Structures are given as structure tokens and as C-alpha cells.
Amino acid sequence: MGYRVKEIFHSLQGEGVHAGRAAVFCRFSGCNLWTGREQDRPDAACRFCDTDFTGTDGPGGGVFEDAQALAAAILAAFPYPLPPLDGGGWRPYVVFTGGEPALQLRPELLDALHAHGCLCGVETNGTLPLPAGLDWVTVSPKAGTRLAVTRGDELKLVWPQDGVDPADFAGLDFGHFILQPCDDAARGAGAQAGADHIAACVRHCLEHPRWRLGLQTHKYLGIR
Fold first, then answer.
1. Any residues with CB less than 8 A from the CB of 69 and at least 6 apart, and which?
2. Residue 25 catalytic?
3. pTM for the structure as a whole
4. Given 10, 116, 204, 218, which residue is catalytic?
5. Is 100 marked active-site?
6. Is 177 tagged catalytic?
7. Contact 124/138 with Cβ under 8 angstroms?
8. Catalytic one of 51, 54, 56, 145
9. Is 15 tagged catalytic?
């Protein structure tokens, strides 16, 4: 069973606990909450998605016949020599994202990357089970969906969302709780809506210190 990948690229992690960390991102094609087509957005479970995850035509993207082929493409995207397995100090970081990576992510791909010393993280909507062996799990819940992944390293809630209360998630088993202002200005909400979302998240974090404010720093920096 092959892998369909929209793009593979090297950049800095822009969000969450690992913001600012260099990584190779493998963006899988496809999602279980939205087709990726604008005409279907009003009926999607995730209507604020800001990512193009359709097809396999992005930089480094394509159809990979097996885990070894995809792992080789991911490793080739690091623009510097990787440290020896016993090198200590740092390990190359790979982030699987989408779309929804749980639709395609399998243990053999993680094994192939671990064999080269990589740490493997995932950014998921949490509605599908994840394979064992991940080194970092970030779950971003969406309104009206049921979580299959209720524990991990980081819960990153895009907020406000209609029908979602951060308190619904605060009791789950995550090491970090991130509240990220919903950025829907590009879809017609306007600058004031964006400012209101930031203000709401700041206020909530001040009143509920279990949560910390998370910003999409890559958008401020103008990087991918």
C-alpha cells in the first residue's frame, strides 16, 4: 500500500511547544473532515482549515510505493548532514501533517525513520487511531467530532469554535494545552474578527492558566 503525499519541505515549526524548531514536514494528501474543495467547506467538520492538502503536486510530493521510498525522500529533504546515531546533542525532527496524517501513517514508516535517528511527530485532528512509536503527538480537536486520541504531548485547540468549550478538553491526559486564535480572516471574517479571536484567547489563558497562548509564528515571519 503506497503513500500519497502533497509536499515534503524543510522549515521551522511555526506552532505549539516546538515553535522555532527546524524540521522536515511531510504533508499527506487527504482528510476525513473536509475534501479540500472550497465548494464543500460549508458542510465540512473543519471549516477554518487554511491548508492545501489535495493532490500530490506540491514540492517534494508524489505517490510513494512503500515506506522505504517515502523515508528516503524525507531524509533527502534535510539540507544538512544528519548526526550519527550515537551523536547525542540533537536528533533530526520529522513532522507528519495533512490533511489528516492518521489516514496513511503506519509503523513501518516510523521504523524506517527511527533507524536513521529521527524523532517523529504528528499533528492530527485526533478522530482516528495513531500507530505506536510516535515521539510527539499533537491533537487539534474540531467541533462536532469524537476524539479517538485522548492522550498525548500537546492538545492544540483552535478557538473560538462554535459549540466548543476549552473546559471540555482540560481533563484529558496531555502534557501541554495550547489555545490558538482561529485565523479565518482569509475566508471573509475580516481583521476585526481576527483581533477578537486573539483577545478571547488571551483572556481565557489569563483566567485559566492551564492553557497557554499559541500563535502561528510562521505567518508572522512569512515562512512556510
1. none
2. yes
3. 0.94
4. 218
5. no
6. no
7. yes
8. 51
9. no
DSSP H/E element including 204: helix 191-207
Per-residue pLDDT of the chain (224 residues; tens, 9 = 90+): 799 999 999 999 999 999 999 999 999 999 999 999 999 999 988 888 989 999 999 999 999 999 999 999 999 999 999 998 876 778 999 999 999 999 999 999 999 999 999 999 999 999 999 999 999 999 999 999 999 999 999 999 999 998 899 999 989 999 999 999 998 654 455 556 678 999 999 999 999 999 999 999 988 888 88
Alpha helices, H only, 13-172: 67-76, 107-114
Number of residues written out for the chain: 224
Among residues 15, 123, 153, 183, the one annotated as catalytic is 123
Query: Active-site residue 207, yes or no?
Result: no
Rounded to whole angstroms, the Cα distance separating 163 from 178 reads 18
Would residue 182 show up in a list of annotated catalytic residues for this protein?
Answer: no
Q: What is the CATH code of the structural domain delimited by 3-221?
A: 3.20.20.70
Q: State yes or no: is 50 an active-site residue.
A: yes
Q: Which of 7, 26, 46, 205 is catalytic?
A: 46
Catalytic residue flag (residue 123):
yes
Q: Round the CA-based radius of gyration of the chain to a whole number and report it.
A: 17
The domain segmentation of the chain, as residue ranges, is 3-221
Choose, from 7, 18, 31, 205, the residue flagged as catalytic.
31
Q: Which of 7, 15, 18, 25 is catalytic?
A: 25
